Description:
The complex is a heterodimer of chains A (195) and B (194). With 195 residues, chain A is α+β, with helices and mostly antiparallel strands. Chain A contains 3 helices and 13 strands. Chain B has one domain: tt1808, chain A, CATH 3.90.1570. In chain B, the strands form 4 sheets. In chain B, strands 4-7-8-9-10-11 form a 6-stranded mixed beta sheet, sandwiched between helices. The A-B interface holds A 121, 123, 126-127, 130-131, 134-135, 149, 151-154, 156, 158, 161, 164-168, 170-173, 193 and B 1-2, 4-5, 120, 122, 125-126, 129-130, 133, 148, 150-153, 155, 157, 160, 163-167, 169-172.
Amino acid sequence: MDGxxxxxxxxxxxxxxxxxLAAPEHKVAEILDGELxxxxxxxxxxxxxxxxxFSQIGGAFDRENGDPPRPGGWWILFEPELHFGADVVVPDIxxxxxxxxxxxxxxxxxxxxxxxxxxTLSPSTARIDRTRKLAIYAxxxxxxxxLVDPLVxxxxxxxxxxxxxxxxxxxxxxxxxxxxxFAAVEIELARLWID
Amino acid sequence: xSRFAPIxxxxxxxxxxxxLVAPEHQVAEILDGELxxxxxxxxxxxxxTSALCARLITAFDREPAGPDHPGGWWILREPELHFGADVVVPDLxxxxxERLPRLPxxxxxxxxxxxxxxTLSPITACIDRTRKLRIYAxxGVRFxxFLDPLTxxxxxxxxxxxxxxxxxxxxxxxxxxxxxFAAIGIDLARFWID
Lengths: 195, 194
């Protein structure tokens, strides 16, 4: 199904982790509300946005506590597999505060919800990201979600407020931003986009 | 400058004269004092806006008339709205009759709508989500819909004091009941080109 996200499941059967394990190598497999979703691997534009943001945030925050421009205090991971009950979710980038998770468990997946995560949107995945995954992240009390749209060149910062997502701020283009929960450091949006 | 960003004119404070001399085939707006020229919508956006407009007018235009016609709204396409020095042209807007009992015969309106919809395209989504959304919060628009034919999504944002809440997210072939028009079902499948 060229480029679009397929719901793949024999009808009426809840997907299990075996379906994830059996998925083709070149697809990203997730289980959302009991349904298996296969997404194509990201295209270049998506890969550039995720990689640059991971590099900027990871460089500053994935270390022991320190001072700006490298405040530390977080674990910042690329495409971690998260298991929330029967759901299997793979955000593009996720972060845990070290006081909540002092060390990374040597396990095949995480079941502790991150403090922050980022989804890089693409036309084929944006609907799943905004409908299914945002709802799961709210249910799991992820405190901040960033949505990066490399086609439109925007960064939306969502904060969980009483179980609902509030748009805290939206940035665009070549802005240099300080955005929660990483406001201690400037993020250069221009580096996320390809010309 | 991104090729997906609307073109802005030279950095002087724009006035309505700049809107009046803008090319016919472009949509001219003044946002935070700057002139923005956007191309007219392409067919995927036109289809989505037209389908939503038709559905809402069928059910909500003018006075109530039976269970399928709750009525009580003015629904307009691409009106020119003047908010102070800003000139904004949303794709669809609605006023409830309690706030606007009669539609005046005017070239532009200055009363903030109760609801509006922006149909997103890669070219306009940036200013829709940033500058225009901030203006809509400033003016107290209570409901903003983002309709995106490329991703086939409908987002419903509601204003809570001065912050936007992501109230609902729909998409694909859903038949939705979305605030503030939850009295009727809206079949999203009719909004997208197959």
